[in-house]
Amino acid sequence: MRQTVVPATRLSGTLTLPGDKSISHRLGMLASLAEGTSIIRNYSTGADCHSTLGCVQALGIEVDEEGTTVKIHGKGLDGWTAPTRDLDAGNSGSTIRMMSGLLAAQSFESTIFGDESLSRRPMDRVMKPLSLMGAKIDARENRFPPLTIHGAGKLTPIDYTLPVASAQVKTCVLFGGIFAEGETIVREPMRSRDHSEIALKGFGADLTVVQKVVTLQGRPKLEAREITVPSDLSGAAFFLVAALIVPGSDLIIRGVGLNPTRSALLDFMLSAGAKIKVLKLESVNGEPVGDIQVQYAPVKGGVIEGDLTAAVIDEIPVLAVLGAASEEGLIIQNAQELRIKETDRIATVAENFSRMGIAVEVTPDGMVIPGKQKFKAANFDSFGDHRIAMAFAVAALAADGPSTMENAEAASVSFPEFWGLLGQIAG
Ligand code: S3P
């Protein structure tokens, strides 16, 4: 699908965004292992989180969907049954990596695969700790999907230090640890998003977090719950940047997840001079949630490096757009993980920048983006990557004429409502 985006004069309105993708995945998986029916409200509408639901259904779990409310009829820790078909993770790295931990402990064999993009993403980062737990997994070239997981029946607990800051890998080990008798310990180089820890505790698991060390007691009894998922801060990021590059803009985004392991994005924007306010802050099922107001203000730019890079990794494509419009430009370092996301996001950002006449210096682990650049209308491509589609749709709002986005449907991976909402706020 090709989408046209016309430049906007000012953006205004109040938005409610779909449920957080990271949280929805975890709740979908854990609810399928809990005893009884969980009701999850504001479940992500994205294709990725539906890949997760498709997998748990293929494992014999009944799922009912009414709008964005999902009911999952869990059958307890030992309730999954051998799938009659291979499990389709679609485009979703979270689905394949997190599910692997759960599948490794089953008493049956399963194969999990993904689309062309996912088939190029490395899985050895989860295969290694799972093999230490006693799992047997075959992969194409020993690291790429599809994965054939010869269920070990049960796993051995491990004390594992993550070599990279990855919440997906942390979650995979913890999810394996559910089926390991004794203590599974994960040590992180920095605190990655902690939605799994919050969700596991919420379902009744015995889990402690001391600084960067997470300890889970195996074989918890997980109990069904009623939970509301906050709106996705990573989805909100596109609208925050849109308001910061289109003069006169004023937006309110309601009910956004503001978990501190995700909200470094806001801290960075604030430190760069963005006019952002959190209007109402409350805790919903253990996750901080608030309304965010963003108003146009010139933004300084800055440096994203080290732990900050890991904390805002999903938002870097759209922050790069902000950087090009900023006063002083943006330097992004230590972002080699971008090269193994849904696309090589350093390459796809640079390609779309060059189409719109934006200067950028590409480095092996980041980009140097001069500030005060003028955006030219262009024919962009998402390259099948949802965050690239949305980041450059935002850039197009500040261009000097109408732009087009090829493969615009990619946005549906996390945010099917994106194009409609963009049209709504641009009037
Ligand atoms: C995610 C963790 C991050 C992030 C991804 C979602 C999660 O990936 O980029 O979009 O929900 O745990 P890594 O674990 O590879 O850092």
Helices and strands in order:
Elements: E1 3-5, E2 12-16, H1 21-31, E3 35-41, H2 47-58, E4 62-66, E5 69-75, E6 87-88, H3 93-103, E7 109-113, H4 124-132, E8 136-140, E9 144-150, E10 159-161, H5 167-178, E11 183-187, H6 195-202, E12 207-210, E13 213-217, E14 226-228, H7 233-245, E15 250-257, H8 264-271, E16 275-284, E17 287-295, E18 302-304, H9 306-311, H10 316-325, E19 330-332, H11 345-355, E20 361-363, E21 366-369, E22 379-381, H12 386-397, E23 403-406, H13 418-426
Parallel strand pairs: 2-15, 3-14, 6-7, 10-11, 18-19, 22-23
Antiparallel strand pairs: 1-23, 3-5, 4-5, 7-9, 8-9, 11-13, 12-13, 15-17, 16-17, 19-21, 20-21
Bound molecules: shikimate-3-phosphate.
Question: Major sheet: size, sense and barrel closure?
Answer: 4 strands, mixed
Low-confidence stretches: none
**SS field, number of helical segments:** 13
Structural class of the helices, strands and pairings?
Answer: alpha/beta
Structurally, the number of domains stands at: 2
Under CATH, the topology of the largest domain can be stated as: UDP-n-acetylglucosamine1-carboxyvinyl-transferase, Chain
Ligands (ions, cofactors included): shikimate-3-phosphate
CATH architecture assignment of the largest domain: Alpha-beta prism
